[in-house]
Design a protein that fits this description.
Elements (H helix, E strand, L loop, with lengths): L8 H28 L9 H29 L4 H24 L5 H27 L2
């Protein structure tokens, strides 16, 4: 195993944390499938559709932000900035998932969760470009 000094430990922490979040969301889909007896798709059940989208929406954002975090950590970004990205991602996905699980309409959790996720996504993307351009 590689020494901890050379490991991107902040990114690895958020990779593990968000992997657990994704499996919890997947389990939520499975419990809704059991509850509503739906094996494929959403079966026209609004709660099923929401559960599927909670998991799907997280899968649309989490991997890319984690890839950017890893690249930024390997590029030497400060642990503080990495924790801002990781905490924002995790909090944003939790809030969004909670808000969407409760209602398919507008909800504060959904709005704030999406906003935080997008801000973190753009922040990490800009930092990636900044690192890239500083080496050109």
């Amino acid at each position: 195993m590689q020494s901890l000094a050379a490991m991107p430990v902040v990114s690895v922490f958020y990779i593990g944390l968000n992997a657990l979040l994704l499996i919890i969301m997947a389990f939520y889909v499975v419990t809704q499938r059991w509850k509503h007896k739906v094996s494929i798709g959403d079966g026209g059940v609004p709660a099923m559709e929401r559960a599927i989208r909670v998991h799907g929406n997280a899968l649309e954002y989490v991997p890319m932000v984690l890839v950017m975090m890893l690249a930024l950590e390997l590029s030497g970004l400060s642990p503080f900035e990495l924790h801002v990205i990781g905490t924002g991602l995790t909090l944003g996905r939790l809030l969004h998932g909670w808000g969407l699980a409760l209602s398919s309409g507008k909800s504060p959790g959904r709005f704030v969760g999406t906003l935080i996720t997008w801000l973190v996504f753009v922040y990490a993307a800009v930092l990636c470009l900044k690192v890239a351009f500083s080496h050109i």
